[in-house]
């Protein structure tokens, strides 16, 4: 027999409890609880952003004096953020190492990748 149409005693008690709670408190209380939760989330977000704004004087990397000094006319990366020197030092390059891995596997080395 299919259990789709049957309800266990525990399931019936849960269902009856939900129905009784809805009958006593109604939909309005659930709506108020949801609104209170959303209001709390909004207050929390505002406080996090306010703390971030007040605690950290430099919030953007382009406003950092050390970064500005680095990219200044007499700085180390004087050719700018997209210049040759910064590209050479700060960007990575792909190197295909699959042949070396296959050679190790052929020798019997077990790799955990």
From TrEMBL:
Q: Which residues cross the membrane?
A: none
Q: What is this protein called?
A: Periplasmic Fe hydrogenase small subunit
Q: Is the keyword Ribonucleoprotein assigned to this protein?
A: no
The UniProt record lists the keyword Cell inner membrane: no
> Looking at the UniProt record for this protein, which Gene Ontology cellular component terms does it annotate, in alphabetical order?
periplasmic space
Positions of the Iron hydrogenase small subunit domain: 35-98
Q: Which InterPro entries match?
A: Fe_hydrogenase_HydB (IPR008953), Fe_hydrogenase_ssu (IPR003149), Fe_hydrogenase_ssu_sf (IPR036991), TAT_signal (IPR006311)
Q: Which Pfam families match?
A: Fe_hyd_SSU (PF02256)
At the top level of its lineage, which domain of life is listed?
A: Bacteria
A molecular function (GO) term: iron-sulfur cluster binding
Identify the keywords attached in UniProt to this record, alphabetized. Iron, Iron-sulfur, Metal-binding
């Amino acid at each position: 027999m299919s259990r789709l149409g049957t309800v266990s005693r525990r399931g019936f008690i849960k269902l009856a409890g939900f129905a009784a709670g809805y009958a006593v408190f109604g939909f309005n209380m659930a709506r108020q609880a949801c609104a209170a939760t959303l209001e709390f989330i909004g207050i929390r977000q505002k406080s996090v952003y306010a703390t971030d704004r007040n605690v950290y004087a430099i919030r953007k990397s382009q406003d950092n004096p050390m970064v500005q000094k680095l990219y200044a006319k007499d700085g180390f990366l004087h050719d700018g953020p997209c210049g040759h020197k910064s590209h050479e030092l700060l960007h990575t390059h792909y190197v295909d190492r699959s042949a070396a891995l296959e050679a190790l596997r052929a020798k019997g080395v077990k790799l955990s990748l």
